[in-house]
Every structure is written in C-alpha cells, then in structure tokens.
C-alpha cells in the first residue's frame, strides 16, 4: 500500500494515496473524527474480514472453530513480529485491565511501587485496591527527572505507567526509560501501551519495559475484545501467577504441571473473531508502515500544538515538554464541547477540558478547521 513516497531521502505523504486510505473509514465522510483516544475506527476491509469469519462459522460450525483455534499461535507470531518480542513471550487477553489484574495477583505485595498521579485508573487502581506500598510522581514537564530522582533515592521496586497519558496526551520519553533500566536493572518497569501502540515503530526487546500491555481498540484499530501483554523472560520469576484453566494447557491436560508463563494469562478460550481482527489490523498497519504513520502523526502533533498554544488552550506543562503525542486536552467547558459536536467534530470531555486526538486518517486541514471553530 503506497501511502507515502520517499523522495530525496525525505518521507512525504502521497496525497492521493492518503485520500484513498481515508475512504476505507466511512465515519470520516460524516465528521471530523478527533476521538481515536476513545475508540479507533473500523475499516471497511476489517468489517469484510469479520463478516467472512462469521460466515465461515455459520457454515462450518465446530469444524471451522477447530481450525481458527489452531491459528492462534500464528497470531502470537504476528504480534511478536510487529513489536519485536518472542511469540512465546506474548499473552493474548480480552483487554488490558483483565490481563493486568491477573498479572498483579501474582506479584508479591512487599514490592514498593512508583506510579504517576492521575494516570489511567486501570493502571493505578489495581495497585491501590491490593494495598501495595505506593508513591506518586506528578505528570508534568519534569516527570522524567522526578521519576529518576525518586528511583535513585532507593526503595522503589516497580515503576508502572502509561506510555501516553489518556487525559493530557503527555508521552514518557522512551529513551529515558532505557537509561533508567540500564542504571537500575533490578527495577521492574511495567507499561500500558493502549494510547501508544500503533503510533510509531516499537522494539519491545530493546525498550526499557519489562512488561508492556495494550488494548488494541484504539490506535491499533482492531476493534474491542482483544489485547496483549509482552513479557521479558528475566522478570517472569518475580511472579507467581494464579490464573489457570483449560486454555492454559490448550486442551491438553497432560501439560498441567508445565504451563508457560504467558499461558497463565490465557486460562480460558480466546475469541477467534476478535484476535483475528487484531492480526488483520497489525498486517494492515504493517503494510502502511509504522515509520510513515509516525512521520504523519508528528506533523499533526506539531500543527495541533502550534494552533492550540496560540489560543492559550494548552497547559504550560504540555507546552514545555520536548515531545508530545497527538492527544491534546484543550481548555473548554460543556458549551464549547456542544458547539464542536454541533459542527460534527467528534471529541471527548476529559479532565475538565476537551480531549482531541488525531490518527493517520486525520489531516492538517481538519486541525485547521477545528482551530477556526475554536477561534469563532
């Protein structure tokens, strides 16, 4: 899929191809969709695949399902290849939250945890309800420095955080995490990549994360009901996972006493429609090229940050950070949100403001149109 051309070693959008790509998402004909941080769009291609899957089930019944279940290891290979992780270190789960809770049920409660203040509830709450010993760092322009200083002072065993913040769009510096892990190798670093995965190339094995999980219904455009966890072998011994069932042994009860780590996170059957959708979407994004998606998103991020900052709509802590995602929380009340909605701009009220988020199917012209609405 030639969405971009490379001319003179410069990656630039192929406008006609981009417009062709946008046609795969019918919602874009009805509105300016600035809400991928809430839900990624369903493409016509994925819809057709899903219809074919269920038609095969309709006609084939259990015979079709046997073949579909047998394909699940291939889906793990696709996930592993996409994120540079061994397939055996990939766990498929219905959503990040369920997988994360199963993971923490196997982590010793004597661990001291460092969290981000007002991070996504599914990251912080599971630690809080299990009464882990916790400390918090603010999400601001000095976030990385504050994390480093607190870890350096000693006593922190686990750092858990979202790669990109769900309200503000603040993104942790991934190079910082690599250095942090290098300097403090015993620190267990766990990430939620739900608002990150699908926005740029990511090499899990070379990253600072020991564990990364993500639901795939946002930037990966895979629909609901599918997620994954990537786990490095070096930290598996720190957990005593308790989730277990027939799915853990893939229907072979002789394997009861030799269950691999990630299979403890898969105690029941996996939905072949939803995880087939994940595989389809990863192939789709891979065909476009994550490096091209990243380039386009950086242009959108720069455009939006400039436009919204000129109107004084962004927090100072966002303005002072060197890099940012394509999620922006602008100052605005319910009246402004209603105005945007009336003008067919799809967004979300979050954190006392209005959250706008842009994916590769958005354009700079759409950001300009939103800016003009805000000015008026």
Which structural traits does this protein have?
14 strands, 3-stranded antiparallel β-sheet, 376 residues, globular, Aspartate Aminotransferase, domain 2, 7-stranded mixed β-sheet, alpha/beta
Short overview:
With 376 residues, the chain is α/β, with parallel strands linked by helices. Helix content is 39%, strand content 15%.
Question: Would you kindly provide a written description of the structure presented here, covering whatever features stand out?
Answer:
- This protein has 376 residues and is an alpha/beta fold.
- The protein has helices at 15-22, 44-60, 62-70, 72-83, 96-104, 121-129, 143-152, 174-183, 272-288, 290-310, 316-319, 334-342, 364-375; strands spanning 4-7, 10-13, 32-33, 90-93, 112-116, 133-137, 158-162, 188-192, 211-215, 227-231, 327-330, 345-346, 348-350, 353-357.
- The chain has a single domain (1-42, 78-268, 288-376), classed as Type I PLP-dependent aspartate aminotransferase-like (Major domain) (Aspartate Aminotransferase, domain 2, 3-Layer(aba) Sandwich).
- It contains 13 helices and 14 strands.
How many structurally independent domains? Answer: 1
| The CATH topology | Aspartate Aminotransferase, domain 2
Write the CATH architecture name.
Answer: 3-Layer(aba) Sandwich
Shape: globular
CATH top level? Answer: Alpha Beta
Main sheet summary? 7 strands, mixed
Helices, strands, pairings?
Elements (H helix, E strand, L loop, with lengths): L3 E4 L2 E4 L1 H8 L9 E2 L10 H17 L1 H9 L1 H12 L6 E4 L2 H9 L7 E5 L4 H9 L3 E5 L5 H10 L5 E5 L11 H10 L4 E5 L18 E5 L11 E5 L40 H17 L1 H21 L5 H4 L7 E4 L3 H9 L2 E2 L1 E3 L2 E5 L6 H12 L1
Parallel strand pairs: 3-12, 5-6, 5-7, 7-8, 8-9
Antiparallel strand pairs: 1-2, 4-10, 9-10, 11-14, 13-14
Helix pairs in contact: 2-3, 2-9, 4-9, 5-6, 10-13
């Amino acid at each position: 899929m030639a969405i971009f051309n490379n001319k003179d070693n410069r990656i630039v959008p192929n406008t006609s191809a981009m417009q062709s790509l946008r046609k795969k998402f019918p919602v874009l004909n009805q509105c300016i969709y600035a809400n991928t941080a809430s839900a990624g769009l369903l493409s016509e291609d994925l819809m057709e695949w899903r219809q074919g899957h269920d038609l095969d089930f309709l006609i084939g019944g259990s015979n079709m399902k046997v073949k579909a279940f047998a394909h699940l290891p291939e889906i793990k290979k696709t996930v592993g290849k996409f994120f540079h992780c061994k397939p055996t270190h990939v766990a498929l789960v219905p959503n990040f939250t369920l997988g994360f809770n199963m993971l923490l049920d196997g982590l010793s409660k004597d661990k001291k945890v460092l969290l981000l203040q007002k991070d996504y509830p599914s990251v912080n709450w599971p630690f809080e309800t299990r009464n882990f010993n916790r400390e918090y760092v603010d999400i601001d322009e000095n976030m990385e420095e504050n994390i480093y200083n607190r870890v350096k002072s000693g006593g922190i065993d686990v750092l858990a955080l979202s790669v990109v913040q769900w309200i503000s769009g603040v993104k942790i510096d991934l190079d910082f995490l690599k250095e942090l892990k290098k300097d403090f190798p015993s620190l267990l670093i766990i990430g939620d990549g739900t608002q990150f995965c699908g926005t740029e190339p990511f090499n899990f094995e070379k990253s600072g994360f020991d564990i990364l999980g993500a639901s795939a219904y946002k930037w990966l455009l895979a629909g609901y009901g599918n997620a994954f966890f990537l786990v490095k072998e070096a930290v598996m011994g720190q957990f005593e996972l308790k989730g277990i069932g027939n799915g853990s042994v893939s229907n072979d009860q002789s394997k009861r006493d030799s269950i691999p780590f990630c299979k403890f996170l898969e105690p029941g059957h996996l939905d072949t429609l939803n995880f087939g959708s994940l595989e389809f979407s990863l192939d789709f994004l891979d065909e476009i090229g994550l490096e091209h998606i990243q380039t386009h998103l950086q242009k959108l991020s720069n455009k939006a940050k400039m436009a919204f900052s000129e109107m004084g709509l962004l927090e100072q802590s966002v303005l002072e950070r060197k890099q940012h995602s394509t999620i922006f929380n602008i100052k605005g009340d319910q009246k402004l949100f209603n105005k945007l909605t009336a003008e067919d701009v799809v967004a979300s009220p979050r954190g006392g403001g209005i959250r706008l988020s842009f994916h590769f199917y958005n354009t700079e012209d759409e950001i300009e149109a939103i800016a003009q609405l805000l000015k008026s």
